[in-house]
Amino acid sequence: MAIQHNTADKRREMGAAAMRTYPNISHAWGLKESEAALLLGVPDSTYRRWKQAPGNARLDANHLERMSLILGIYKALHILLPNKEAANSWLQRANRNPLFAGHAPMERLLNGHVSDLYVVRQHLDAARGGGHA
Per-residue confidence at 128, pLDDT binned at 50, 70, 90? Predict the structure, then answer.
């Protein structure tokens, strides 16, 4: 029982920390609130509640996985593109890589599938020379 309680406490702490950070990332990426919610896989109303009160955010394993991938994408972009504006706009620019077929990577992310977050993260990690950000 103590282990389950400890895990729930840890998940609550991670969720609160993530929701204090994520709105800043979504703003830097130029996302609308509905798009930020979609990347997390939650309804707009849930995202607004979590954003207003990060300590009350209840992120499940899926949300935490999405958040981890988003944070990794953000970090990788800022390593690959030290210019802040270039890093934050990369997702919005058309990309000729076959993964994106001439579209902006954000278009792929806005499909709402965790697998698309993973593909973009993996692409950026490969550009960095492998390994996770």
Answer: confident
Cβ count near 50 (within 10 Å): 25
Rounded to an integer, what distance in angstroms lies between the CA atom of residue 64 and that of residue 60? 6
The model carries a pTM of 0.89
The CA-atom distances, in angstroms, between 98 and each of 49, 87, 94, 95, 120 are 37, 20, 11, 8, 12
Predicted local distance difference test score (pLDDT) of residue 129:
84
Per the listing, tokens 């930020």 go with: 36
CA distance linking residue 98 with residue 71, whole number of Å? 23
- Provide the 10 A C-beta neighbour count for residue 52: 11
**What's the CA gap between 103 and 116, in Å, rounded?**
14
How do residues 10-35 score in pLDDT, each as one tens digit? 888 888 999 999 999 999 999 999 99
Question: Under DSSP, is residue 93 helix (H, G, I), strand (E, B) or coil?
Answer: coil
E strands, 21-91, in order: none
- CA distances 87 to 56, 75, 96, Å, are 30, 9, 17
**Burial, 65: exposed, middle or buried (Cβ in 10 Å; 0-12, 13-18, 19+)?**
middle
